[in-house]
Task: structure prediction
Amino acid sequence: MSYSQKSSFNLSTIIFLLLVVGFIFFSPFFVTEEWSSLPQLNTIFLSILIEAIPFVLIGVLIAGFIQIFITEEHIKSWIPKSKVKAVFMSCIVGALFPACECGIVPIVRKLIDKGVPLYAGVGFLLTGPLINPIVILSTYMAFGNDLRMALLRMGVGFVAALAIALVISFLFKSNQLKHKEHSVTKSKVKHPPLYQRVKGMFEHSIDEFFDMSKYLIIGAFVAAGLQTFVAAQALLAFGDSVYHSTIVMMALAFFLSLCSEADAFIGASFRNLFPTTSILAFLVYGPMIDLKNTIMLLSVFKAKFVFVLFLLITTIVFLFVSLTSFL
Amino acid sequence: MKFHLQHFIKAVILGVFVLFFIDLHSTGTIMKYINPKYENISKLAAGIFILLFFIQLFRIFQRKGKGHHHCGPSCHHGHDHGNEQFNLSRLFSYSVMVFPIITGFAFEPAILNSTIASNKGSIFSQVNQKETSPLNETTLTDKENIDIYSSDHVPLVNNNYLSNEEYEKKLSLLEQSETIQMQDDIFGSYYEALNENPTEYVGRTIQMSGFVFKEDGFNSNQLVLSRFMITHCIADASILGILTEFEGANTLKEDTWLEIEGVLDVTNYGGYEIPVIKATGWKVIDEPTEPYVYPVLTLAE
Result:
């Protein structure tokens, strides 16, 4: 039963090695300081990790809970039959659900495994970290008690998530999980006593934690490396039109891999360098996809799907955010 | 009864995570990684680790099959059950898990320095275009007087809580006192006020400490006296710095900590007015035990 896992693991190992090799190869072009910054890198790495781990733990506990207590039958009765309705519902549930982009990956995987359609899972994956009370409040505060940015972030983010999930619903029919062998029949055969199910829930959470956190660790390390060795100003070399700066801010959001609850303050610190449109792109794009959660997604979904999802998120967020500049 | 090596390794790893988190909190090192207001959620994480550790302990000596009553022999949903064959990729994945713990115990957390500061981009381009920003029309009091953390469902404790009264008092000190004291608890608010209306404070004396940071193209008498402000964790640090001028500034190395006293003035930098401190006195000090500053959060009535 470990064969499929072995091959999937090799893929992510290869991607990781490519990243490392690429980083070392290109580093002379933008490295600003020698290796004496390693302690700084280690500190940033650990701080991203220490900050993210509580949210991942909560995520795996919820995933464990879903695994043991929620059945395929429940899910079938909850999800509307029509695709559009299902996408709508998943985006709204995600918006009400407080999560960060790393904590939500194990939850989405478990939901899809339990029979939630892929497009609904994607809607939930995108709005969960982006729209929630903590993110709204921190955005509101970071932009000087100005509701405009917080509202734009939620509005554009919600519409973009709807669009992405809808496109996904037309592109993919199967659930795109790496391990499709999951048999629907077995999970409801037995109904063990409650204490055993609770124990099972925690055991699942432990396995899930071991599964997820290695990707979080790799992602945090790469993001910390970029912060330590790459000057933000190198990004400005690409040009200074609104479209350029929007792309720059999206790239920044991707590589910095900040938790969605903290990124508003970082975004706000760029508002003097870049127009509002570009800042908005940073705020909407980052929670939907970033480096550390791409690596986590690659461990759950087929590489081709993650790639398509990445392209979709990038183009749709770019388009929608650009449209707001005409408002 | 059978000894499960994989479960044993997992228990050990969870155990070291427990130790790591307990160590972080008991020594206070956690403050060098994240904003203290996130301490509680991090303690919650330590609690969850302890719970998971004990549950994992029982799995080490489990009769075969018993552990997976919820998940029969046909279980294929591909997660790490820990009872598969031990192979290279597993070894790699456990090493990845242990890696941050090793570096965490082996190395002291570094204090962010001028290298990181220069990666964050020019300080002055960040502050002085504020006036042109359409989103920046609120007053300072509006900006800070917000009670977002008191009723939040995440229990947060912030070292930098000030009551409204204290906060107002401190703010009025900025306008009235003879010397502006850039203390840690109010640093961010004062800094913002100084940069929003630099001309208003011309001629006032100021006392401030921070580390030396330099940008390309500085004169020999110029440096930036800076602090890092932490919102969430070290990764989101932003740099706050004030241009400072005195003879001999070029002799000071970056990252040296200084305490200075001087008179505020304005200068033109890249077409924008920014505050500058004409230092009248300065001395080198040790790096403070709490090198970072945090945004002010005022208590609601």
